[in-house]
User: Fold this.
Amino acid sequence: MKPSRPLIEAIGLSISFGPQHARNRVVDDVSFRIGKGEAYGLIGESGCGKSTILRALSGLNGEYEGALTLNDRELPKKRDKEFFRRAQMVFQDPFGSLHPRKIVEKVLSEPLKIHGFDRHSERIAETLDAVGLGPSFRYRYPHELSGGQRQRVAIARALIIEPDILLLDEPTSALDVSVQAEILNLLKRLRIERNLTYLMVSHDLAVIAHICERAGMMHRGRIIEELTAGQIRKSEAREDYTREFLQASVEAVARDAEVVA
Amino acid sequence: MDKPLIDVKDLTIRFETPQRTFDAVRGVSFTIGREKVGIVGESGSGKSQTGRALLKLTPKVATISAGHMCFKDTDLLAASEKDMRKIRGNRISMILQDPKYSLNPLMRIGQQIVEAYRLHHRSPKAEARVKALAMLESVQIRDPERVFNLFPHEVSGGMGQRIMIAMMLIPEPDLIIADEPTSALDVTVRRQVLTILDELVTRRGTGLMFISHDLNLVAGFCDRVLVMYAGRIMEDLPARDLHKAQHPYTQALLQSLPRLDTEADELKVPVRDPSWLDGPVYRNGVLA
Assistant:
């Protein structure tokens, strides 16, 4: 790793839910660092707290202990507008995350208006082009788009205000494999083109290994270990739990091919 | 092998609206014995409609036609709505994708399972309760007494899906149609649910039609795989031979997956060849 300071850092992050007498600690003393231009993944089974971390970082949940920093400055619990300009989120379900009664143009022009950007029309055209949707998609409603196209619109909405950070919450798990390939390629290309920093949550190890350089393995609210993409591919883990998780995910097709080979 | 549970020849499902006619499924033929058959394909390939057609649960605007469509000795095409009600749930049951939407949110879990049982078996409530508890235990729910009295919103996704499985298995059907039963679950829970499903299906000799878009999952779990594209079965082959698939579509799907063992800068996106729509199909690695 380069010695430069991380862009995003979590220090002793803990998040609890529930009433005082029955507090449920969902995220427990989690720390991680993400450098500029890096893609960091969070993996783990459902309920391990990975999405909760993402929600806390994105400002959707301000009830956390510990600190989250951006460029070495602690983020206020109530995020300011500047933060939202720099960090945008793409949600899991493109069917739920787009307003059903707003055409694509409206969806894309709102963030521009909120953040006071100029050249709305040109920016919309450029961004649609960048995510591989032609100008014909500009005046469509979400129900006129396929799942993959909707996810592209969701990515366009995040990108249009030129953020440096994308927070990705299982961006492909609601999509077909062939569409997943398209979206993953798109995410990979955009990161290089725009020097973006990703924090990606997924339960699919192959997806994480494809997009991210490093990932934190989560279990019961803690990051039990950090792995590089290479270590994930080679199933090199220190913890038993991680090893089990990695082995559970090795693809059956790959396994069968090995038996024959 | 004895007579297959399901024997379908040239199944076509046609949606007719004033604007246009659309064939969601076009001349599909297959059989399912007491085995695990996976049906894979993208959304819109007709896999779910094929599953639903077996229970005649296609929407009203759709018409089903087929050379024949039989379940054991019953001709499903000729069966009346009344006959179908006896088959649904009792002899062919269906596990749906998301337990959040398919369990009744206002009914306690135990009651729903008891209802499923008593709908098909005349039995006193107390006996049904014992059965339901035993069933919950067999899908590895610890403390079934407690879960029995919970509402669906009080259980996790994985537990909800196991409850669905319990509910669908309790009438002891001959065939289970599972439509994306695990796509709402994550890897570890998925594995657990599949293991339970596998064990119960194998032990009871139930046939399983497993509809999924996840090639890897099907390859590891099923005995046989049918690959559907644009309403047709492109390829029918044993699951262990999936990596030797002949059809360019199957091959393209396999290549579009991110893999752990090989690193790729860019994933291959399947390029759809219009000739696949009516082109040759493969059965067990040879042209059919």
Notes: The first helix of chain B runs from residue 47 to 54. Chain B touches chain A through 40 residues (CB under 8 Å). Chain B has a mean pLDDT of 88. The longest strand of chain B covers residues 21-32.
